[in-house]
TrEMBL record:
InterPro entries: EGF. The keyword Aminoacyl-tRNA synthetase does not apply. Residues 497-540 form the EGF-like domain. This is EGF-like domain-containing protein. The lineage of its organism: Eukaryota, Viridiplantae, Streptophyta, Embryophyta, Tracheophyta.
Length: 558
């Protein structure tokens, strides 16, 4: 290996030393890229992207697709090396790489014009302070067609930017708060990586102070600090369960038990199992009072089974059934909710109007100790030649309801709306513990078979189903959809044993509360405490400090 002296240029990045430290730029590289695409008649621009223009997917003929891909690649290298200011624009434009249009090319020209106008900009780094500081933000529903938002983050160190990103989120957020929260979770993951990187550098390992993340959404910060569960945000928990460890700036920042940043995601609960018991099955946490063995659950009502015969393993509700009809559990909330997969009823026919037995089957959910949530679920029917109803059990009483839908053309169907044109919904009564779905057709779909060969009926978590005209055909391949069960302690009071008043189901720093819907009681951590209120020693305390919307967590020893 030969010593070539002080670095000047590396991989197209110019390194300049000055009185303030070091500066990195890609002036020469940008000039080459602008020259390569000079035929676009590039004009100087003051911003890389015009937010007033809504770029959409091109359904027409592609315009110079290979050259467009080359332009995106050239811009992406600049965006990843030194030009964080074009990250959003490049991320946005890269989504149309498979079939670009003239409008997409105009946007490419604007980014190149901005780079041409600002080619001398540099990243400036000084030796101190060695402080990592982050900024998180989100653009709500920045993608028109799929209703997805965009996450953005920036981290600085030594006075300059060291990490940045702009990415489309992978799940639909229903508000700006949820979009900001998902962005905050992604930023937390980046913090973990940065801090691990700094730990591997001898010069910085003992000099990195507490990381702060700045967020401009008060609603998001309030949700992050809140120990109260909100069922409407479960989808954030499933897709973005960021369970980072607590750190303390007073003690050693890199104690092995405190390493990392705590960014609790929306519905993440400190749910522990009993000692010696299985605490999770794949991504599903199994908190007490639930358990997989007799000594692990509070009562047989809370028996769950980890089924390792499937790959990956699945968590099933109840004692293993010889018939194999246990429902799969997707999430257990200590706030009294279970997210499960419930069966979809199908009624399908071939082009001659004959029943298609391969795809036709009914759904039945047997009575049990759990109620079907009346606040989170909807009875839903999909089809244009369809009627459906269900019979349910409420204690010793029966309940029936249903709906129907008739439409002659797919143009009658409105996406996102269950308005009886292709889709209808009705509410679930409180206290329902069993269902038996019945599904039928008026004319065996013979007149609409080309776009709708089947009818479908199911009970589904309302936030987990957004109707589309494609469902008239595509639901044929769906056998299960998410549904919410309500659970509670199966006693009239919070006492596990009514004859032993000292044996209380709710442990330290928790309160007993009657369910608002359904039956029974739940235990909840007292204000300022988090953890599992059913498991000794009970809920634990956590102090939260807020400095200018920055996030700092310090664990208290209970």
């Amino acid at each position: 290996m030969k010593d070539l002296g002080e670095v000047d240029t590396i991989l197209g990045i110019k390194v300049k030393r000055n009185s303030g430290g070091y500066a990195l730029n890609q002036t020469h590289y940008i000039e080459k890229v602008v020259s390569k695409f000079c035929h676009l008649k590039i004009k100087d621009a003051n911003t890389p992207f015009d937010s007033s223009i809504k770029l959409e997917k091109n359904d027409g003929r592609s315009v110079a697709q290979l050259e467009y891909a080359s332009a995106i690649g050239s811009l992406m290298y600049a965006a990843q090396c030194t030009r964080a200011d074009i990250s959003f624009a490049v991320s946005k434009l890269s989504r149309f790489i498979s079939n670009p249009s003239v409008e997409h090319w105009k946007a490419i020209g604007r980014v190149l014009g901005y780079l041409k106008n600002t080619k001398e900009l540099s990243l400036q780094y000084s030796k101190f302070p060695i402080i990592i500081e982050g900024y998180s933000d989100a653009s709500w529903i920045s993608s028109v067609r799929d209703n997805l938002s965009t996450t953005g983050w920036v981290f600085t160190l030594g006075g300059g930017v060291v990490s940045w990103g702009s990415k489309k989120q992978t799940c639909i957020s229903h508000s700006t708060m949820e979009a900001e929260f998902i962005a905050l979770a992604a930023t937390g993951k980046e913090v973990e990586w940065l801090k691990d990187l700094m730990m591997d550098i001898p010069f910085t390992a003992n000099n990195v102070s507490t990381v702060s993340i700045h967020c401009d959404s008060q609603a998001t910060l309030a949700r992050a600090y809140s120990g109260v569960y909100n069922g409407k945000s479960r989808h954030i928990s499933i897709r973005h369960e960021v369970k980072l460890k607590v750190f303390n700036e007073i003690q050693s920042m890199y104690d092995k038990h405190l390493k990392g940043l705590l960014l609790a995601s929306a519905a993440t609960v400190n749910g522990q199992a009993k000692e010696g018991c299985l605490d999770r099955c794949e991504a599903v946490i199994i908190p007490y009072p639930f358990g997989t063995d007799e000594h692990c659950y509070l009562s047989p009502y809370f028996w769950v089974t980890s089924n390792h015969s499937s790959n990956p393993p699945k968590l099933l509700l109840g004692k293993p059934s010889p018939e194999g009809n246990n429902v799969q559990v997707l999430d257990i909330s200590l706030e009294g909710e279970l997210l499960i997969l419930n069966y979809v009823s199908h009624d399908c026919y071939d082009s001659l109007g004959e029943a298609d037995s391969l795809y036709s089957y009914d759904s039945y959910l047997k009575p049990g100790q759990f109620n079907i949530s009346s606040t989170k679920n909807k009875f839903t029917m999909v089809g244009c030649d369809t009627f459906a109803w269900f019979k349910g059990q409420r204690g010793h009483e029966s309940y029936r309801t249903g709906c129907m839908s008739i439409c002659d053309n797919i143009t009658d169907v409105q996406n996102g709306s269950c308005s009886r044109n292709g889709c209808c919904q009705t509410s679930i009564p409180d206290g329902l513990s069993a269902i038996d779905l019945t599904l039928g057709s008026f004319n065996n779909y013979s007149e609409i078979w080309e776009f709708n060969p089947c009818g479908y009926a199911f009970i589904v978590e309302e936030s987990n189903f957004n109707f589309s005209s494609n469902d008239l055909r595509d639901l044929k391949s769906k056998t299960e959809l998410p549904m919410v069960f309500d659970w509670a302690l199966d006693k009239e009071t919070c006492q596990v044993d009514v004859n032993d008043q000292t044996n209380n189901a709710c442990k330290g720093n928790s309160t007993c509360n009657k369910r608002i819907t359904g039956w029974g009681y739940l235990c909840n951590c007292s204000e300022g405490y988090q953890g599992n209120p059913y498991l000794e020693p009970g809920c634990q305390g956590t102090r939260i400090y807020i400095y200018n919307c920055s996030i700092y967590f310090h664990e208290l020893i209970s």
